Amino acid sequence: MENILEKLVNNSKKAIEDGIYDINESLPNSETDLENIITKSEHATLITEIKFSSPALGNIRKITDPVEIALKMVNGGASALSVLTQPYMFDGSPEFFMKVRKMVKVPMLMKDITVDRIQIDAAKKIGADYFLLIQSIFDNGLVNDIDDMIDYGHNLGLKVLIEAHTKQEFENSCNTSADIIGINNRNLDTMEIDLNTTKEILHNAKKTKLVISESGISTSDDIRFLHKCGADAYLVGSSIMKTDDIQKTVQNLVNAI
Length: 257
Fold this sequence. Notes:
- Helices cover about 40% and strands about 15% of the residues.
- It is of the alpha/beta class.
- The protein has a single domain, classed as Alpha-Beta Barrel (TIM Barrel).
- It has an eight-stranded parallel β-barrel with strand order 1-4-5-6-7-8-9-10, surrounded by eight helices. The protein has a two-stranded antiparallel sheet with strand order 2-3.
- Helix 3 (about 65-75) packs across helix 4 (about 95-100).
- The protein is globular.
């Protein structure tokens, strides 16, 4: 029986076979330096995520206009947006990403399970500033040569967010040339969330890159806790997508610091 990581990788391979990433448009990215925004921000730097479903939660929000959601997030103070482009299990699409890209100026992350250069080419075409790599997929041998993926993206003018869940994965991520490291508080084997994951990984760690804490963030207290742990920014998706007042929710989280 395939585990969650294997299922995520196979979903991406199926999406590639199904032509999901065959993009005819070519959109510019934001030309805005997210790392500079994070470094200079006086408040909590939020990367808010547009996702309608997930393997852990199932349906999160009825699928509606992603642009309307994106504008509420940006108006609430989000510094960047993450948009799911994986159709299977996440109800995402490159089309959603492009609709949002045409309407906002902030940096955008193509949130997907990247297993092939074809997806990186798509990230370039749809106007992404960043694309995601998951360290454990490479550490477990499900996909080969993370350095090649990073170099390929950099050569296209893209930046890379690499995601770790354990101390070893974090150290491995630090040894790559990825631009930002994300610490996923969710265990992809069990789908359980623990904000202490960020605390434990960053305790006595030598930070060589900016760190984004991801998953399980829903309150201002969560933001303040993670800030004390050493996180530089915060990726928040489900708790915002489930709320009735997206703009106000984002605003409250940004003002937590």
